[in-house]
Amino acid sequence: MSELKRKDILGLEEMSADEMELILDTAQSMREIIDRPIKQVPTLRGKGILSLFYESSTRTKISFDLAARYLSAGSVGVAKAGSSLDKGESLRDTVRNVEVMGPELVVMRHPSGGAPHYLAKNVDSSVINAGDGYHEHPTQGLLDMLSVRQKTGTLEGLKVAIIGDIFHSRVARSDIWGFGRMGSEVVVSAPTTLLPPNIEETGCRVEPRVEDALKDADVVCVLRLQLERQKQSFFPSVREYHALYGIDARRLALAKPGAILMHPGPMNRGVEITSDIADGPQSIILEQVPNGVAVRMALLYLLLGGGE
Amino acid sequence: MSPDFQLKQKAQIMDEAAMGRALVRIAHEVVEKNSGTDGVILVGIHRRGVPLAERLARQIERIEGVEIPCGYLDITLYRDDLTLRHDRPLVQGTHIPTDITGKTVILVDDVLFTGRTIRAAMDALMDLGRPSSIQLVALVDRGHRELPIRADFVGKNVPTSRQEVVEVKVRDIDGAEEVVIMEKTGGDNSNV
Amino acid sequence: MNKILIKGGHVIDPSNDRDGIADLLVEGNRVAAIGDQLTVEGAEIIDAKGCTVTPGFVDLHVHLREPGLEYKEDIASGTRAAARGGFTSIVCMPNTSPVIDDETGVRFVLDRAARDGVVRVYPAGAVTKGQKGEELAELGLMYEAGARMFSDDGLPVISARVMSTALTYSKMFGVPISTHQEDPTLAGDGAVNFGRISTLMGLPGMPEEAETVMIARDIELCRRVGGHLHIGHVSTARSVQLIERAREEGINVTCEVTPHHLTLTEDLVKESGYDTNTKMKPPLRTEADRRALISALRDGVIDVVATDHAPHSFDDKDKEYIFADNGITGLETAFALLHDRLVLPGDIPLDRLVEAMTTAPARLLGVEAGSLKEGAIADVTILRTDSEWAVNPGDFASKGKNTPLVGWSLTGKVETVLVDGNIVLRGGELV
Fold first, then answer.
1. Which of A190, B164, C12, C301 has the fewest CB atoms nearer than 10 Å to its CB?
2. pLDDT at C331 over 60
3. What is the CATH number of the domain that holds C12?
4. Distance CA C278, CA C403 (A)
5. Are C117 and C141 in contact (CB under 8 A)?
6. Claim to verify: residue C252 and residue C329 sit in the same structural domain
């Protein structure tokens, strides 16, 4: 496969292994550009990219902006605060504005599951979902897969343990669908209050005890714990969460020797993950960041690189 | 999108032996022109420029007894015709083993045609560093230049018409070693 | 006197155990005679051969949106939608702006209905002032003004004490209190059923227990204090179990189910790709829930079908899923949907469906409707059960075009409707 025959990237649930393979291969080639002294190629000169962030985001937005810049595309961003997005402009009006502005591609993050799907249905531009509610975050899933594949060469047959707030995590869903489609075995573990119903239908296995989930894992993906969930009584205290589900050196040792440690960031050090392992030799957390730019470059190229 | 025209072989213009002789000659010319191999880097352009550059490197090693750095370059992201093409070329990556700044970079490609690939390759090289000079090896020069570009070393000059396609086959990729001229029959020729 | 003779139709009148071919004579606003081969001088003849003739449908749960929300629906458009759907009597919910929580509000709706309406309208009054769940509204004065049901629909009565008081107080009037069962602490910001679809689509879920704990609570209150507890739009299998057990214990509890909960499931949210016309309260549930609702309706545990017709403007629905308004229209598709999806496959007999849409709700509400006996009020609906049509919201009389059934092909059509002896719908067209 050398072409992505789709207009939009809305989620990994509907994406084939071949498509993911192409994206990862292309992203791997893009990595080389990021490591150059001159980090820019003229590929998408004259293309317009609009990013609509209805939820605050630092790293994802920067990552998309850099990806656009490295490929010489023009990127204009609208973030929630102080923009018309904050003034209650309806999504339909935003869509109509997008239509007349005519960017080739729109990147959208939104608190409602399905909002990018709505946008994609209503505009001719390509749409990339940069996170919708707690549905999907496909570019994060892809960059996680790329980061692991760089270490292991393949995703086939790996045991991937995802630990933390599965319930509210779009990263978890995209990782489960992505790694699962590429032949990994995905196991999740979370406090029972942070485990969504029927999660097995996404293709993962649930291990109630975090130790069982970690056992012999090739990859450990630790999710960010949103501390405001404590006020909503999903768990009684940060201290208790850390004691029961926090990943530290002792727990990480249950995974295979040299297992890969990931975290989508930003981290709550000392809560879901301890500093010694986050900064330790098994961690690829910092590698995930440039890989995020590479994956987004690959998607921009694959969606916009050819004419119609 | 697959092209809606067919290609028919018209003539073989180089066989395996001819290709080998041409590469040996070019290897000598490169060494002669550069008074040795100091600061010389060979860079093959994806795809068939890559095995040709590797062979050239082996030939030069045989002549001079030194191993010279050999890299490869993907120019997809520098193409000026991306939006004109119906397909999206696969990005295959670039790797050059040393810093090119101050070096003599010898670009290697299979066929020199409009010159646009070489233009893209030079842009790509400039983003990687500032070589002291860039020279060009083409196994076949078929004419029809659209840019002021010429090859420093040519395996064979082949006059062609625009309706024809020159195909260089190398064993590593195509399982055969030869250069043939193909002729397009039928279909739309506008986006070649 | 105006005379109409409906000839040769298949009459289903559950109030009278009648189920067979008969002629029906309407004189003035009453059924004058029913029998074989009636002939009457000077009567307008309606040929009902091949049609099914039933009492006019009665809907215990409609949102007419007037006053205050006329951009979504008003009494003129809503009653016309009712007529197109075969409904001759409807209860309209009080969650308007302002809320119908006093005598004046009830009179306003009745006056408007008399002026603009084409079917009978029975206002439901709010249980609490402003539907705030705190102070009891003037149930007595509203009853005297014509309210025949009380409900805070759209919102639950959160306080058990207030609910208990309302049930106790309502005994003086013998009027049902209809409930919207949703524990807000459990429902949260749920947009779909809590389960596989909320997980797969990353949408906040509303668990079934948000409904069932409130049902269990109100059953306990009703057991102690009496009154008539009517549970609106039940949506889960467990709800039905709780209600069945309460009735076995002799507690005065009745309930209703909507056409959409009987025919659609949460899977439609996914299949439709986040179509906000799949968003309603209570949410569409699972196939197991749907099967349980069908059985309960067939067996009579669920008394009636009520549409919960909830018209919204295009803008109120054309939003991100979590921000879109709840509810769908139902009046103009109810019979066809149920006939096509439940009667034709054999899940519900036609006579039971007719009973649940006519005699049962009329009796529950205590109004004169739901019968074709001699002397009964002449509200009549004539159906074509073999007629197939495609749902096109553009044809709706309702201002609300919000239905997930767009383009669905349904068999079963409302042909002719008489209200009070007058033809309001003829050949599917409003008169």
1. B164
2. yes
3. 2.30.40.10
4. 8
5. no
6. yes
